[in-house]
């Protein structure tokens, strides 16, 4: 819960212009050989102070909400897996919800049509009423001040515009290869 409170406060910071100053899709370059981040696609957003938060969007787990919450009937009805959002607070379930309006609570607007639900009671409501327009994540990724900028300068990530349909795309098994090939072609054309 402390991570959620810190995240909510930090995310209230005003956004800056384009690039790493807006919500963005990060596509790991092939040379990024890291146990967790190799072949990943992340949705990242600035949270102020040159820090960023993100969610890995292409790593489904073998766990469903029904397995995590077996006594919660609405959770048992969600067939989609919970995704590995990242290594920070893996015990916390977050929801990215597609829609034009906030699902409530301290939810954060990520894109014009995508919100992050962080409060457990709001995540429960999303499970109960909006699960078909949501993706659920265990944990998140946090970058220290300047860390993501340094990773981009080192050439670890391709940057792409963030879109809700991409973030919530099903299935995700071919997503990495498609996006990395598209990114490589675009980089080679420059």
- In CATH, the homologous superfamily goes by the name VC0467-like
- Strand proportion, as a percent range, falls in 25-35%
Radius of gyration over C-alpha positions, nearest whole angstrom: 16 Å
Shape: globular
Number of helices: 7
Major beta-sheet overview: 10 strands, mixed
Tell me the number of structural domains. 1
Question: What is the helix fraction of residues, given as a range?
Answer: 25-40%
> Which architecture does the CATH hierarchy give at level 2?
3-Layer(aba) Sandwich
Give structural notes.
Helices cover 28% and strands 33% of the residues. With 190 residues, the protein is an alpha+beta fold. The chain has one domain (2-189): VC0467-like. Strands 1, 2, 3, 4, 5, 6, 7, 8, 9 and 10 form a ten-stranded mixed sheet that branches. A hairpin with a 2-residue loop joins strand 7 (108-111) and strand 8 (114-117). The longest helix is centred in the C-terminal third of the chain and has 15 residues, at 175-189. It is globular. The N and C termini lie far apart (45 Å).
């Amino acid at each position: 819960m402390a991570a959620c409170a810190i995240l909510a406060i930090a995310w209230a910071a005003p956004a800056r212009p384009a690039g790493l100053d807006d919500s963005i899709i990060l596509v790991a370059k092939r040379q990024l050989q890291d146990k967790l981040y190799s072949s990943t696609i992340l949705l990242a957003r600035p949270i102020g102070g040159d820090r960023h938060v993100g969610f890995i969007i292409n790593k489904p787990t073998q766990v469903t909400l029904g397995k995590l919450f077996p006594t919660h009937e609405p959770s048992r009805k969600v067939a989609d897996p919970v995704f590995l959002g990242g290594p920070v607070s893996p015990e916390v379930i977050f929801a990215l919800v597609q829609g034009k309006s906030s699902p409530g609570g301290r939810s954060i607007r990520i894109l014009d049509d995508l919100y992050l639900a962080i409060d457990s009671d709001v995540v429960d409501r999303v499970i109960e009423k909006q699960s078909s327009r949501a993706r659920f994540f265990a944990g998140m990724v946090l970058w220290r001040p300047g860390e993501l900028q340094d990773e981009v300068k080192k050439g670890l990530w391709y940057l792409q515009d963030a879109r809700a349909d991409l973030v919530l795309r099903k299935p995700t098994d071919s997503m990495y290869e498609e996006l990395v090939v598209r990114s490589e072609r675009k980089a080679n054309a420059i």
